[in-house]
Design a protein that fits this description.
- There is one protein chain.
- With 370 residues, this protein is an alpha/beta fold.
- The protein has two domains: 216 residues, P-loop containing nucleotide triphosphate hydrolases (Rossmann fold), CATH 3.40.50; 84 residues, no CATH class.
- Helices cover 46% and strands 14% of the residues.
- A nine-stranded mixed β-sheet has the order 4-3-5-2-6-1-7-8-9, sandwiched between helices.
- Helix 1 packs antiparallel against helix 2, helix 3 runs parallel beside helix 10 and helix 10 runs antiparallel to helix 16.
- The structure holds guanosine-5'-diphosphate (GDP) and magnesium ion.
């Protein structure tokens, strides 16, 4: 049974325009119009780029709604990985020689970190990974995760990375704090003539067009609000100011700069906060006020201070939410005079509840394609 797709008013409007245009075109232009119509039926293809450890794979997981791309504080994405819809979950290791080897996901339902070994080939022989997932979100969206920009030069896969970016409908370029020289160099290449030439050569079936690049200013939860000139004391005030500054710096290289907390987006969209985590948050919220305010002052204090909540439970919360997320969640769980205790606890664990903390990051609507 085929899955229903979300309505896509903009695509439908462009398709109607194409149909109206067709009777008035010669055969050469008509062929191009047919190409555009065919492309409109395909999912939006978004490539996620940026330096190592800025949070690309975390954002990919948030977009897909499943924690399937491995994430780590160190470099862990070494291959271009394309996620698209399929009726069965599987990983195809696509070889430079043209063949491919099919694998399953690992025990955590994620892409195995040692795909080349499992496929019985050397990493240098792998062109890219093609991951099919039975996630309804992917009916309208294909997401391409990429190795960090620094890894681009030394990997023999620069060609695959270049083609993936140049062939995408849109690029989400992830930054932290501010754009560096390698970011502006990459953005110039994505939108410049080089990318267009590669795009035509490598993906002849695709109609050429400008790459739409949206910059994502990620990890804004780690910004010290008081360090941002003109911001009041809230993290979001500071984040909005930093994003506006970066938008001015990057100018026409990007359509906009959007502040996000990708980690919270991932936790929210994958629904990975467990009932035990919620119980831990509640225990923290209802514990001693003085101890709690000291604990929430820094990551070190949060994990080391003596309190009734087990250190392992606190560490798990930090993995899913980091300190800012824990602070927000605990605030949501605090009793107020207006609401009885039972009414406010679970609010912060629903998707809608978390979205206000994660940022307005959903790119499909922002890119205006759907
Ligand atoms: N505090 C915080 N940590 C984040 C955020 N996004 C990602 N991370 C963490 O940053 C590290 C690197 O993330 P990853 O997605 O693997 O980066 P990549 O190399 O760009 O793919 C991981 O430990 C993530 O949990 C965020 O918005 N806030
Ligand atoms: Mg990664």
């Amino acid at each position: 049974m085929s899955q229903p797709r979300r309505p896509r008013p903009l695509c439908e409007a462009v398709d109607a325009l194409c149909r109206a245009l067709l009777p008035h075109t010669g055969s050469a232009l008509a062929a191009q119009v047919h190409q555009v119509r065919a492309r409109l039926q395909e999912p939006l293809e978004v490539a996620v780029t940026g330096r190592v450890s800025v949070g690309k794979s975390t954002l990919v997981n948030a977009l897909i709604g499943r924690a399937v791309a491995p994430t780590s504080a160190g470099e862990c994405t070494r291959l271009v990985t394309r996620f698209n819809y399929g009726s069965v979950d599987r990983v195809d290791v696509v070889l430079c020689s043209g063949g491919s080897v099919a694998l399953g996901l690992d025990a955590d339902a994620a892409v195995p970190s040692d795909v080349a070994t499992r496929a019985g080939v050397a990493v240098a022989e792998v062109s890219h990974l093609q991951v099919s997932l039975s996630s309804a979100l992917l009916l309208d969206l294909a997401v391409i995760d990429t190795p960090g920009l620094g890894a681009l030069e030394r990997a023999p896969l620069a060609g695959a990375q270049h083609a993936a970016v140049a062939g995408a409908d849109a690029v989400l370029h992830v930054l932290t704090h501010r754009a560096r020289t390698e970011d502006t160099a990459a953005l110039t290449a994505f939108t410049g003539t080089d990318a267009r030439a590669a795009f035509r050569a490598d993906t002849a079936a695709r109609p050429p067009g400008p790459a739409t690049v949206l910059a994502v200013l990620n990890k804004v939860d780690t910004v010290a609000a008081e360090s941002v000139l003109g911001a009041d004391t809230t993290v979001w005030e500071a984040a909005q100011r930093l994003a506006a500054e970066q938008a001015a710096v990057l100018g026409s290289l990007v359509v906009d700069v959007l502040p996000t907390v990708g980690l919270l987006a991932q936790t929210c969209e994958t629904g990975s906060l467990s009932a035990a985590d919620v119980a831990t948050l509640r225990a923290l919220a209802t514990g001693d006020d003085a101890t709690r305010s000291v604990m929430l002052a820094s990551t070190e204090l949060f994990t080391s201070l003596e309190c009734a909540v087990a250190p392992g439970d606190r560490a798990r919360l930090l993995d899913s939410l980091d300190l800012y997320g824990v602070q927000c969640a605990v605030r949501c769980c605090r009793p107020t005079r207006r609401f009885p205790q039972a009414a406010y606890g679970p609010r912060c664990t629903t998707r809608r509840g978390w979205r206000r903390f994660a940022g307005d990051w959903t790119p499909c609507s922002l890119l205006g394609r759907t």
